[in-house]
Amino acid sequence: MGIKSTFSMLTDxxxxxxxxxxxxxxxxxxxxxxxxxxxxxxxxxxxxxxxSKIYTKSGRRDEGHRIIKEYKKKLSExxxxxxxxxxxxxxxxxxxxxxVDVKLRILRKRTSYTYRHVVNAFIRYLASKKMKGTMVSDxxxxxxxxxxxxxxxxxxxxxxxxxxHLATLKMFFSMLIxxxxxxxxxxxxxxxxxxxxxxxxxxxxxxxxxxxKSLPRFNYRLWLVAQFVYYCFLxxxxxVRMRYGDVDLNRHIIVLSGRQTKNKQTQMxxxxxxxxxxxxxxxxxxxHYFMFSKKLEPGVVEVAQTRIDGAWDxxxxxxxxxxxxTIYAMKHTxxxxxVDAGVDMRSIQLQMRHHSLEQTQQYLDRFRRRPNVAxxxxxxxxxx
Length: 384
Known about the structure:
This protein is 49% helix and 8% strand. It is mainly alpha-helical.
């Protein structure tokens, strides 16, 4: 943008300022600015009111300065309130549904379900507060705070679920900013809550021995799935997306495309020798076949990971294993046994597909919080 056009744009508006009602909390505070009307060339005054539910002067000033900063940025980038005036009066729920529809065209089915779940929960809240008719520009930071408080206070959400809802709503309101429905993201200043690390659950040697003997007879295909988790650290959702063409027995590797992985990047893992020997024994299907389709048998239909979860729960109950002994605990079991075997951390990082050695170190440090059977049984006796 040239100097002349930049100067012209700056002369179209007068910078936002704060009206503080001479410090009175009994009067409405607002941010005001003027913009040149395209009809008659005269400046028209615009006001953005600050919520009267902010009960301190400092709180209202902070909110006012935040609004000023956002509007200064928008105006300097060429935003025109006359061109955007119609959109800001759009219905909030209709706008969010529109943004969800945009996302549904590009997201995986499971992610789409998660986003729709979050937005539906938010819409139900709006309905309960008689806010279904709220315009998109009228939903403020204070409204956002009240909703987030309700997630913990009324719905009893865990910190993790709270954070998922916060992140999703931040994203959708950011989409509304890009489409010039709103100027300020009401959720943007809220920070995620701290999440406690989940406990590392691993199988004991006795449990592994029992599973190795009983699971092949109970469900051989599930036995193969368990080994992909144990040896290759694959997630159940990656396993149901895996095709025969992804598994290279000659090179001893599995190539996971971006469509399969959590971070949507193509990745590779090694096939350890014990699993390789198992795979050599099974019938090999065409490359485009999924290895685990309906009933975990080979097929052309991609199934949900719940097929694996359901099959494992059935076996777990039959084997009388604890409820926390999920199939994904096989990953922790395999990692722990690699550490016990003295495998170097770099090799573990690559097999686990961690982005850094630091991430792997943090993961392995969690194992040190678990009882160390080897240490207890081999510690030298005092005085001997």
